[in-house]
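Supplementary Methods. Inverse-folding protocol.

Structures were first reduced to a discrete structure-token string of length 122. This string, shown here, constituted the complete conditioning input.
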């Protein structure tokens, strides 16, 4: 028998051996029919540990926040568009297809002066 942590393995084929049922004198390897005496399990303590992330929880997921930083990114094209916040007449624009293909695209604007952002559905 080979012991690794709290697990017992068959010495012939390496298969994980099951725990003996009550009253059994031997444990039979399911793969090669090796017989291990049930006394090998006497005073045997089984310890199981799980990492907290091993079982994802919907509540735990809601507690997590993700922050994205966009230090260097493509600002888009500088166009003549009036900012609704400060009235500046230039903004950067980017066009994205967010809705279904048969509908128009969405244009995202960012004011070149105050960095206010807004969008327009095309």
């Amino acid at each position: 028998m080979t012991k690794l942590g709290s697990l017992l393995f068959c010495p012939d084929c390496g298969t994980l051996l099951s725990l003996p049922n009550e009253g059994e004198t031997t444990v039979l390897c399911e793969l090669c029919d090796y017989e291990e005496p049930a006394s090998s399990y006497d005073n045997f303590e089984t310890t199981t540990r799980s990492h907290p992330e091993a079982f994802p929880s919907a509540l735990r997921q809601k507690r997590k926040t993700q922050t994205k930083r966009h230090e260097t990114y493509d600002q888009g094209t500088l166009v003549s568009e009036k900012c609704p916040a400060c009235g500046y007449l230039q903004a950067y624009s980017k066009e994205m297809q967010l809705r279904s293909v048969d509908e128009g695209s969405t244009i995202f604007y960012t004011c070149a002066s105050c960095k206010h952002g807004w969008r327009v559905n095309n």
